[in-house]
Design a protein that fits this description.
38% of the residues lie in helices and 17% in strands. The protein has 15 helices and 17 strands. The chain has helices at residues 33-47, 72-82, 95-103, 119-122, 126-137, 156-160, 171-184, 200-213, 224-230, 245-258, 299-310, 331-342, 352-360, 376-383, 388-391, and strands spanning 13-17, 24-25, 28-29, 51-55, 86-88, 109-111, 142-145, 167-169, 191-195, 216-219, 261-263, 267-271, 280-284, 293-297, 314-318, 346-350, 370-372. It is globular. The N and C termini lie close together (5 Å). Bound molecules: adenosine-5'-triphosphate and 3-phosphoglyceric acid. Residues 149, 196-199, 221-222, 239, 294-295, 318-320, 322-323, 325, 351-354, 375-376 line the site of adenosine-5'-triphosphate.
Length: 394
Amino acid sequence: MRTIDDLDVSGKRVFVRADLNVPLDGDRITDDGRIRAALPTIEKLRERGARVIVAAHLGRPKGAPDPQYSLRPVAARLGELLGTEVAFAADTAGESARATSAALADGEVALLENVRFEPGETSKDETERGELADRFAQLADLYVGDAFGAVHRRHASVYDLPGKLPHAVGGLVLTEVEVLKRLTEDPERPYVVALGGSKVSDKLAVIDNLLGTADRLLIGGGMVFTFLKAKGYEVGSSLLENDQLDTVRGYLERAEREGVEIVLPVDVVAAEKFAADAPHAAVNVDAIPADRMGLDIGPKSQELFAEKLADARTVFWNGPMGVFEMAPYAGGTRALAQALIDSDAFTVVGGGDSAAAVRSLGFDEAAFGHISTGGGASLEYLEGKDLPGIDALA
Ligand SMILES: Nc1ncnc2c1ncn2[C@@H]1O[C@H](COP(=O)(O)OP(=O)(O)OP(=O)(O)O)[C@@H](O)[C@H]1O
Ligand SMILES: O=C(O)[C@H](O)COP(=O)(O)O
């Protein structure tokens, strides 16, 4: 794979696909970790006289402009961090993008509006994606793939565009892959994987593969309830993937057969509604009231998970244990982070929100072995799956 060092970028327009999918509260960025992680590649290109056109997605808009998912606040923050003005194109691949790209001087940077405002970006139809990629290609001379958090997506700006321009892999992708390799090539055991978060259907699928590599799986976050339901418990109004119950039963059976431990919470914090001020209490998993939703693992589960991490030598953690953004439901995530720190294991934390949680709860990033910008992407890498956004850079 070619790296940036192999490209002659001086005076050229370089399209950089980055993952700038940061958590927002209104238009306030609550964690800028992914923007910071994108800086080295952009800075290197600027130093070498490139005209840098950054493209990224934010959230999951439905293929049309939606102001709540605008990257405008990200352009402002990127400019602050780079210490230079970042021009913002009000569209993704239209008139504004073309004019913004054409106006760039050497060393200048622009950010395009959210690539997912274009239906072609996430389309399953290759022709539709290809048409958008053609429009992107008109904006630039070269392509750099550095969106590690999105390399598992077969999307126009990640997968199709590199086929249309001379391209190189970015430094962030290289670093991430180098660290994650340590987890796939003979990890020190016990190897424990902790899974949580809310992208339940995305992440349930990885369990199948993890059963073949990890010694122990700790299940927290929104994923818990599909497991509990599959075991016959009632889960009230908690997040639930009803159509995955059989799959999950299959995982539980296979784990038992193959001697992989799946550790489920024994209690959860159940709230009347999805709100910080909602009445809530810790209840055992066999006593979740029908009108309540589980928003965190409970204190007994925190202890249990810490015990299950104490002897680990390698840990990968993706997905918060609860709705850590609201103080009453942050305990599980805080306890898990602390247990990782207390263990002697090589620890990797992956995912936009997981990394944000670690930082927002006041932990020192340096206390972990590696904080990855990829959640789903890291998991798919660990599964050994082909990653479209990396394959396309070959
Ligand atoms: N029990 C729960 N019910 C609902 N949401 C939950 C629950 N537990 C955690 N969450 C939410 O999960 C979200 C994060 O999930 P997600 O799967 O996106 O993780 P991530 O670390 O960002 O990984 P990725 O980078 O793949 O997105 C948080 O916003 C958190 O509030
Ligand atoms: O947050 C992430 O994991 C990446 O930015 C990818 O986002 P997606 O799951 O919406 O494709």
